[in-house]
Specification:
The chain has helices at 2-22, 25-41, 45-62, 65-81, 85-103, 106-122, 126-142, 146-162, 166-182, 186-202, 206-222, 226-234, 236-242, 246-262, 266-282, 286-303, 306-322, 326-342, 346-351. By secondary structure, the protein is an all-alpha fold. It comes from Dendrothele bispora (strain CBS 962.96).
Length: 353
């Protein structure tokens, strides 16, 4: 997969140079758009954003609405992957309106709806996310877009997993896995397997989880999927934590955090920082824990991730309680409780009582 991306990038760079040489600015812009999307799929977000922004400007200059809105959609996806949800929502909502009202492109509109649903999912707004993703799934099926339908099933499975409905999660993820395998989409199939590993962790099946995540990590590395590989490094910390192996857990999280930072995934890095803070908290290293959790909380608020922010407040409240600062603890836990209730996370809210 990585080799094919590199081969395609070389051909497109060549073509871009030729188009510029002949003064074909539209052709050059189309090459930039394709190159930007290749970088995006390889998790090289900074390079992707530069190319797509450049292509977007060129398309607007030529009056090519389709090319311009496709670039806007791709830029929205980059913001989503980097945890900049406010910017992502603006771009994707703008793209969705363009697809429907100006161009009438059903596939593009559905893809925007899917991305908006995924943003709600990442922010812990599960009810809104499920509605959007179910809607998008139906539309993808109607137009025969198997990849989009499989991705929606995967995201819906994720929502069930996060809400502790493991049977429903396994059913949807198994369905998504079959569809990804049917169309030969290796990254999608590997992501489903990674989520099975997550479910095993939540069910206390640590040996099966470790084997699954180790296997999937190898698959991601083989196909050059840096984000998936980093996510596999991030999860086993939970196994070590559950078994009291805090040093190994911290090593894995630090490694994963470095990988996320390398590929520009600020949200993944913030989640690692949150988990490192929780490890210090469990070891009664309250000062280090509070610093990390406060930092992570600020990052989550910046990205609009209400779930992550509420979880950090809850952990910080627990630290104050353990240190006998009951007034500060009560304020933080009350704040966290309200945030959990706002996003419909009843389990999180109950843990704050």
């Amino acid at each position: 997969m990585q080799g094919r991306y590199n081969e395609a990038a070389n051909m497109l760079s060549n073509a871009h140079s030729q188009f510029e040489k002949f003064g074909d600015q539209l052709g050059a812009a189309q090459c930039l758009q394709s190159l930007g999307n290749i970088h995006r799929m390889q998790d090289r977000y900074s390079e992707a954003a530069d190319m797509l922004s450049n292509a977007h400007s060129q398309f607007e200059k030529f009056g090519d609405q389709l090319g311009a809105v496709q670039c806007l959609q791709s830029l929205g996806k980059i913001h989503r992957m980097q945890g900049r949800y406010s910017e992502a929502v603006d771009m994707l909502s703008n793209s969705h309106s363009h697809w429907f009202e100006k161009i009438g492109h059903q596939l593009g509109a559905t893809q925007c709806l899917q991305s908006l649903g995924d943003i709600h999912r990442m922010q812990g707004r599960y009810s809104e996310a499920a509605d959007m993703l179910s809607n998008a799934h139906g539309q993808f099926e109607n137009i025969g877009h198997q990849l989009g339908a499989a991705q929606c099933l995967q995201s819906l499975g994720d929502i069930h997993r996060m809400q502790g409905r493991y049977s429903e999660a396994v059913y949807m993820l198994s369905n998504a896995l079959s569809q990804f395998e049917k169309i030969g989409n290796q990254p999608g199939a590997a992501q489903c397997l990674r989520r099975f590993g997550d479910i095993y962790i939540m069910q206390g099946r640590y040996s099966e989880a470790a084997d699954m995540l180790s296997n999937v990590h190898g698959q991601f590395e083989k196909i050059g999927h840096q984000l998936g590989a980093a996510q596999c490094l991030q999860k086993p910390w939970d196994i070590h934590r559950m078994q009291g192996r805090y040093s190994e857990a911290a090593d894995m999280l630090s490694n994963a955090k470095s990988q996320f930072e390398k590929i520009g995934d600020q949200m993944g890095a913030a989640q690692c920082l949150q988990n490192l803070g929780n490890i210090h908290r469990m070891q009664d290293r309250h000062s280090e824990a509070a610093d990390m959790l406060s930092n992570a909380h600020s990052q989550f608020e910046k990205f609009g991730n209400q779930l992550g922010a509420a979880q950090c407040l809850q952990s910080l409240g627990n630290i104050h309680s353990m240190q006998g600062r009951y007034s500060e603890a009560a304020d933080m836990l009350s704040n966290a409780h309200n945030q959990f209730e706002k996003i419909g996370d009843q389990l999180g809210a109950a843990h704050c009582l």
